[in-house]
Design a protein that fits this description.
Blueprint: H1 2-17, E1 44-46, E2 52-54, E3 66-69, E4 76-77, E5 83-87, E6 90-95, E7 105-118, E8 121-123, E9 133-140, E10 153-159, E11 163-169, E12 180-184, E13 194-203, E14 208-216, E15 224-231, H2 241-244, E16 263-268, E17 271-288
Antiparallel strand pairs: 1-17, 2-17, 3-6, 4-5, 5-17, 6-16, 7-8, 7-13, 7-17, 9-10, 9-16, 10-11, 11-12, 13-14, 14-15
């Protein structure tokens, strides 16, 4: 554990010297009594009267809020009671219930990468030449070329090689930004269970957005914060002004996604993976639950 934290500190120091990101990688112990329905520690307390969504581990397809896009394996239950999916672009979507949309949320899930898709064939092997990403996505609308301005997203990712990062999509598909807070925080996550959390909430009187990510690296219930950034402007889409403004969305090229949106998505690309205990909670950002290190 000491070795891991020492490496993390060096990487953070490098990025701060480059004035690229502001990251805290502080190990935090979570109170045992502050657990969700699956017994997983909460980082932030659920907002008063806030919604909590938990996947139906008996049969996810029975949940009307839950839908799957592009699963080429057709959702197979595993002997350990987890579920397996896979495809070129798998999206596990959770629609907000009623008229209230998702905004300040803590998104949690456990996953294990067991294989990859390559050249339209299933390959179960260690192929680390590509950065296969796992992303928990907040503030997402419908991603369609017919309504490009609705296709927003705040994307907190970890890849197969142990790199984490954040990315923003202002419109679909010409409004992607570059990565922020990208750093290597662990060794390969292939063929082992990890927990992954992304947290998104408004700050500065709803004029900015704070994003945090956490990992349970040993599948032990012990969470470590691995990134923390604030978008308060200046995080531009990669495309030129000429291309970006063709969508006519009425958004600036560094648009801050402070607005609520109907979807939260668990997404992977070209990966075969098992998952369990997915959840989304509306949080109170002023009520962080932890024992200071």
């Amino acid at each position: 554990m000491i070795f891991f934290l020492a490496i993390t500190f060096c990487i953070i120091k490098y990025h701060n010297q480059q004035n690229e990101i502001y990251v805290q990688a502080v190990e935090k112990k979570i109170y045992n009594h502050s657990a969700d329905m699956f017994g997983i520690s909460k980082i932030y307390q659920t907002q008063e009267n806030g919604r909590e969504w938990y996947i139906n581990m008996t049969d996810p397809s029975e949940d009307k809020q839950f839908s799957i896009s592009y699963d080429e394996l057709s959702l197979k239950k595993q002997p350990d009671n987890s579920w397996r999916v896979g495809g070129a672009e798998v999206k596990l979507n959770v629609n907000s219930s009623g008229k209230e949309l998702w905004r300040n949320v803590e998104i949690t899930g456990y996953l294990k990468i067991v294989g990859f898709l390559s050249f339209n064939e299933t390959v179960v092997t260690e192929d680390f030449d590509r950065d296969y990403d796992i992303s928990w996505i907040a503030r997402s609308g419908k991603h369609s070329n017919s309504i490009p301005c609705d296709g927003t997203a705040l994307i907190g990712s970890i890849n197969i090689n142990g790199f984490v990062s954040w990315k923003k999509e202002i419109w679909h598909t010409g409004g992607y930004t570059g990565d922020r807070a990208k750093q290597k925080i662990t060794d390969s996550i292939f063929n082992r269970w990890i927990g992954w959390k992304t947290i998104v909430y408004n700050t500065e009187n709803n004029s900015a957005v704070k994003m945090e990510s956490y990992i349970d690296n040993k599948n032990s219930g012990y969470w470590i914060k691995v990134s923390e950034i604030i978008d308060n402007g200046g995080w531009n889409a990669k495309n030129s002004n000429q291309i970006f403004y063709t969508a006519n969305c009425g958004k600036k090229i560094d648009h801050i996604i402070t607005e609520s949106k109907p979807y939260v998505t668990f997404r992977t690309d070209n990966i075969i993976w098992d998952f369990k205990n997915l959840s989304i909670r509306e949080i109170d950002p002023n009520k962080m639950i932890y024992v200071p290190p």
